[in-house]
Amino acid sequence: MTTITRWNPVNELMEFRNAMDRVFDERLRPTFRAATNEDLGGSGLSMDVTETNDEFVVTAAVPGVSPDDVNIEIEDDVLTISGEFKREDKSQGEQYIRQELHYGNFERALRLPPTIDAEKADAQFEHGILRLVLPKRPEARSRTLKITPKGVIEASKS
Length: 158
Known about the structure:
- By secondary structure, the chain is mainly beta.
- The protein has one helix spanning 9-28, and strands at residues 39-43, 46-51, 55-61, 70-75, 78-85, 104-111, 122-126, 129-135, 143-147, 153-157.
- The chain has one helix and ten strands; from the N terminus they run αββββββββββ.
- It is elongated and about 95 Å long.
- The chain starts with 8 loop residues before the first helix and ends with a strand.
């Protein structure tokens, strides 16, 4: 018995567009890193960035990756996290029925504000979660200004 499937040309166009997006993300975007002032993109790595008065904290999920296989670089105010999700060898005769896990190289670049003290950055890795603590330079921390009744301004660090 033959199954009749309705052809939709939009699906093929979307597949082509997604393939082209991947090519640009993986190959061309690193070339233009210095030209942007935002998340510089990359592939295969989800991250959160939080800020306090004293530091920025970058948290990235790298499940199944050894800490030795993760590279962290800060250069010209750009944080780059890269590495590889390695595939386990399949047993003889084993084949995938469904494959959703991402394998291969990953890289994520993020422009940092110039207030970061990269020399004091700290990296922690536990249970597949990478946590980078990026302290701010003391002169970059916010201050609260108060005006006294005599008009003199007092500064205090927050």
